[in-house]
Specification:
Structural class: alpha/beta
Number of strands: 6
Distance between the termini: 10 Å
Number of helices: 9
Number of domains: 1
CATH topology: Rossmann fold
Low-confidence stretches: none
CATH architecture: 3-Layer(aba) Sandwich
Strand content: 5-15%
CATH superfamily: Alpha/Beta hydrolase fold, catalytic domain
Shape: globular
Helix content: 25-40%
Order of helices and strands: EHEEHEHHHHEHEHH
Largest sheet: 6 strands, parallel
């Protein structure tokens, strides 16, 4: 079965290379939001696939997966990110609001601060597409896909990092349905890069469960 990979905010399709090297999927499709001048590629395949999303990529997938999707695997992901009245476990909206306000003025600074916070040492070069990055922040602030997650709970799995500096595992547990398959493991917000071997093993286990 084909794999589709969707990166999170502030990255591009190159994010997946360490995990791809370990997982060795046949003909993987890595989507791209066009945050750094690359071609925007958000077309899902017209054939059965397993969708793997990192961080905000999982939020996008819950809103866009097609009937061909056999399962969704969220890595450092969530169905709701920002705090709200009915989601007190979320990340305070003021953080996103501040980033949204500054992204047009100093995109490189916002990106550098974000990457420092999540301990991202890989370089993703290219001219930042401010409009696309701002749209991504807007989605994080407003999107709520908890109902979509509930509808797909039997074919939904999630993996959270116990030491994630951006997203406490509490957010994943609170936003995903109890009946979904989830695990918390040592690591931060970049499990596909920090721990590609164990992340690939988790994906294989999930595929066996939902196949």
């Amino acid at each position: 079965m084909r794999y589709v990979f969707v990166h999170g905010w502030g990255f591009d399709h190159r994010f997946w290379q360490p995990l791809l090297d370990e997982l060795q999927p046949d003909d993987p499709l890595c989507l791209d939001f066009g945050y750094f001048g690359g071609e925007i590629q958000l077309d899902l395949p017209d054939e059965p696939y397993i969708a793997v999303g990192h961080s905000a990529g999982s939020l996008w997938l819950l809103d866009h997966v097609t009937d061909h999707c056999a399962g969704i695997i969220a890595l450092n992901g969530f169905a709701r990110f920002a705090q709200s009245e009915d989601f007190p476990d979320g990340v305070p909206g003021k953080i996103l609001t501040r980033m949204r306000r500054q992204i047009g003025k100093a995109p490189l600074g916002v990106l550098a601060d974000f990457r420092a916070r999540i301990h991202a040492t890989e370089g993703w070069t290219g001219e930042p597409n401010v409009e696309r990055l701002a749209e991504g922040l807007d989605r994080l602030l407003t999107d709520d896909r908890r109902e979509d997650a509930r509808r797909r709970s039997a074919r939904l799995a999630w993996l959270a990092g116990a030491d994630d500096p951006l997203l406490s595992p509490v957010v994943a547990r609170a936003s995903f349905p109890e009946e979904s398959f989830g695990a918390v493991v040592p690591g931060g917000h970049l499990l596909p890069i920090e721990r590609p071997c164990s992340t690939a093993a988790f994906i294989r286990e999930c595929v066996e469960r939902i196949s």
